From TrEMBL:
<keyword id="KW-0547">Nucleotide-binding</keyword>
<dbReference type="Pfam" id="PF00664">
    <property type="entry name" value="ABC_membrane"/>
</dbReference>
<feature type="domain" description="ABC transporter">
    <location>
        <begin position="358"/>
        <end position="591"/>
    </location>
</feature>
<feature type="transmembrane region" description="Helical">
    <location>
        <begin position="76"/>
        <end position="99"/>
    </location>
</feature>
<dbReference type="InterPro" id="IPR011527">
    <property type="entry name" value="ABC1_TM_dom"/>
</dbReference>
<feature type="transmembrane region" description="Helical">
    <location>
        <begin position="35"/>
        <end position="56"/>
    </location>
</feature>
<dbReference type="InterPro" id="IPR039421">
    <property type="entry name" value="Type_1_exporter"/>
</dbReference>
<dbReference type="Pfam" id="PF00005">
    <property type="entry name" value="ABC_tran"/>
</dbReference>
<keyword id="KW-1133">Transmembrane helix</keyword>
<dbReference type="GO" id="GO:0005524">
    <property type="term" value="F:ATP binding"/>
</dbReference>
<dbReference type="InterPro" id="IPR036640">
    <property type="entry name" value="ABC1_TM_sf"/>
</dbReference>
<keyword id="KW-0812">Transmembrane</keyword>
<feature type="transmembrane region" description="Helical">
    <location>
        <begin position="269"/>
        <end position="289"/>
    </location>
</feature>
<protein>
    <submittedName>
        <fullName>ABC transporter ATP-binding protein</fullName>
    </submittedName>
</protein>
<dbReference type="InterPro" id="IPR027417">
    <property type="entry name" value="P-loop_NTPase"/>
</dbReference>
<feature type="domain" description="ABC transmembrane type-1">
    <location>
        <begin position="36"/>
        <end position="325"/>
    </location>
</feature>
<dbReference type="InterPro" id="IPR003593">
    <property type="entry name" value="AAA+_ATPase"/>
</dbReference>
Length: 592
């Protein structure tokens, strides 16, 4: 299955803005109440803003320049009363604006929280193949940068966006209601703006998507060079990485310039059309006054309404660009959310009568087109020790990965206790199978935390109880190798402990889980011979029912195996005795 997000986005049909928005609102459906309250607040603010010009026009026509030329006895009283009314309205508008900002700030942050959780939880469900095909830096950029773009739009722009549209609609209604002919002249440039926006928006969204992608690419470069900094320094590859970063940075610079240009294209065009509308109102309005069809007060109101129509439109220019960026970010996030894991649990089906703990039946597997295992069949019985040997790149780790269901076969079946391994849920499977990887991964914390990680059995144990359990599992001598015992500090990426010590912790972690099947993939490669002997004794003393699968290049590690499999060129064959395995290796069978 193809999990490469950047590849998939090339062939993927573009989601429409409405469909995208629909999905996004589903995700924040629980915010309906706050969104409605904020909407009410914004509508009140817009209504107040629209009432202002009407009151001003009315005041002029009533008290300052009545169109019938009548003289008003005490104009100041009326003017002051109307000013008082306006002042009160402006205070109410201040309160509703504040409410709206507060409500939407909260909605934006909660949306960011929900979204990051949803993406992160999705990542936890995706199979190893997904992480093989996507760079960590790009995924981090999607979780951090892209979700933040959405948050920015929701917390800062959405209500302004709705407010601008509400004010525009209201102003448009007033413009038509006061005078249809003048209204048509004032609104005609608005139609041209709409037309322009519809044509240009898809390009703006595309340009922003490219820019976000290049941020992801740059983040992937940074992540890779930070992760491998020792190799870079040791092999003096700084120039190589500097050049790669330079390319990514230039690409980011180029796409960011493009996005900046696209995002700023609306403003000057909108401003031009807004000015044309003002001119049309002025010229046509004066003509109507001279014809006696209009009053000065109405023209003043009219100017305000035209401003009220075109100013939000100019604001919309910026907001629309933000919206396009947010939608491009949402496309990148929803790509992850839409990913289906191909390691789904299937129905158990009939349990096969099998004396084996684990069985491969005609298994074929490859990474993409690179076929690794061809028609493999073998059985692992309870309580026995198996060794997988073979040349480098022969397929040992791949076989072990299929045993632990890190991948599924492309055809054939892996049976665990007679049932398709795919019918076990992750919790039950990982209880039965313990896996010590070639490169053990430890979490930042203490030895204790790392041993307890995912180990529910010991969750409530005190230090004394845990030490007791460690002793009972014959792991006491291993723990004694750490100066501060269970409290020894561990850094996931640092050098606080050696690779061999990391392997010891991974070993203790796996053994304490007491699995039915324990796979050790080069688990003692970095451990001295004396400690290795100790580990071998611990393995021999595991409970009777435990099956062990040992992958090792050092043949002394597998001397005591009950059965040895030779893994090479897509085949897994019984090697017979230890000497036969030696001969096969010495014959120099190579990877085809
Ligand atoms: N994640 C992956 N994506 C693509 N190809 C892979 C991946 N992992 C392994 N391979 C390829 O599969 C083949 C078998 O690799 P595998 O790690 O199973 O060999 P191995 O016998 O365990 O080797 P080693 O003794 O060096 O650990 C190799 O050719 C390798 O390049």
């Amino acid at each position: 299955m193809n999990y490469d997000l950047n590849e998939l986005s090339k062939g993927q049909q573009k989601t429409s803005t409405l469909a995208g928005l629909g999905k996004l609102f589903q995700l924040i459906a629980h915010e309906r109440r706050n969104l409605l309250l904020a909407l009410c607040a914004i509508l009140v603010t817009s209504t107040i803003n629209l009432t202002g010009p009407f009151v001003v026009g009315h005041t002029i026509d009533q008290y300052i320049a009545p169109h019938n030329g009548a003289v008003v006895a005490n104009p100041y009283h009326g003017v002051l009363v109307n000013c008082g009314i306006l002042l009160c309205l402006y205070f109410v508008s201040l309160v509703t604006s504040y409410l709206q900002t507060r409500l939407m700030g909260g909605v934006g942050q909660r949306m960011l929280f929900t979204l990051r959780n949803a993406v992160f939880n999705k990542l936890q469900q995706l199979p190893v193949a997904f992480f093989n095909q996507n760079k960590a830096g790009d995924l981090i950029s999607r979780i951090n940068n892209d979700t933040d773009k959405l948050n920015q739009f929701f917390s800062q722009s959405l209500m302004q966006f709705i407010g601008s549209i509400a004010t525009m609609l209201g102003a448009g209604i007033f413009l038509i209601a006061i005078n249809v002919k003048l209204g048509a002249a004032a609104l005609a440039p608005g139609l041209l703006i709409l037309f322009f926006t519809m044509i240009v928006s898809p390009w703006v969204k595309r340009t922003n998507a490219k820019s976000l992608k290049s941020v992801g690419g740059m983040s992937a470069e940074i992540q890779e060079s930070l992760h491998n900094f020792k190799v870079i320094i040791a092999f003096n590859r700084r120039d190589y990485f500097r050049k790669r970063f330079d390319v990514a940075n230039k690409e980011n610079y180029r796409t960011a310039i493009g996005a900046g240009l696209a995002n700023n294209i609306f403003m000057p065009v909108y401003t031009l059309f807004a000015s044309i509308a003002q001119l049309a109102v002025l010229t046509f309005g004066i003509y109507l006054i001279s014809e006696g069809e209009f009053t000065i007060g109405l023209l003043v109101s009219y100017f305000s309404y035209t401003t009220n129509f075109y100013n939000p439109l100019r604001q919309l220019a910026t907001l629309w660009a933000n919206f396009q960026t947010a939608m491009a970010a949402w496309d990148r996030i929803s790509q992850i959310l839409a990913m289906e894991t191909d390691l789904a649990t299937v129905s158990a089906g009939e349990k096969e009568a099998s004396d084996a703990l684990l069985e491969f039946k005609n298994v074929h597997f490859g990474y993409g087109d690179n076929k690794i295992l061809h028609n493999i069949s073998f059985k692992l019985e309870q309580g026995k020790t198996y060794a997988l040997v073979g040349p480098t790149g022969g397929g040992k780790t791949t076989t072990a990965s299929l045993i632990a269901r890190l991948y599924d076969p492309q055809s054939g079946t892996v049976l665990l206790c007679g049932k398709d391994i795919r019918s076990y849920n992750a919790a039950d499977r990982s209880k039965k199978i313990g896996f010590i990887l070639q490169e053990p991964f430890l979490f930042t914390g203490t030895v204790r935390e790392n041993i307890l990680y995912g180990n529910e059995l010991y969750a409530g144990y005190t230090d004394e109880q845990l030490e007791q359990a460690i002793k009972q599992a014959n792991l006491g001598n291993l723990l004694a190798m750490f100066d501060d015992g269970l409290e020894t500090k561990v850094l996931s990426s640092g050098n606080s402990i050696s690779l061999g010590q990391k392997q010891l912790i991974a070993f203790m972690r796996a053994v304490l889980r007491n699995p039915d099947l324990l796979i050790l993939d080069e688990a003692t490669a970095n451990i001295d011979t004396i400690t290795e002997k100790l580990l071998s004794e611990i393995l021999n003393n595991l409970p009777q029912h435990t099956t062990r699968v040992i992958i090792a290049h050092r043949l002394n590690t597998i001397e005591n195996a009950d059965e040895i499999f030779f893994v090479n060129s897509g085949e897994v064959v019984r090697a017979g005795s230890f000497n036969d395995a030696m001969n096969l290796l010495l014959k120099g069978k190579r990877v085809s």
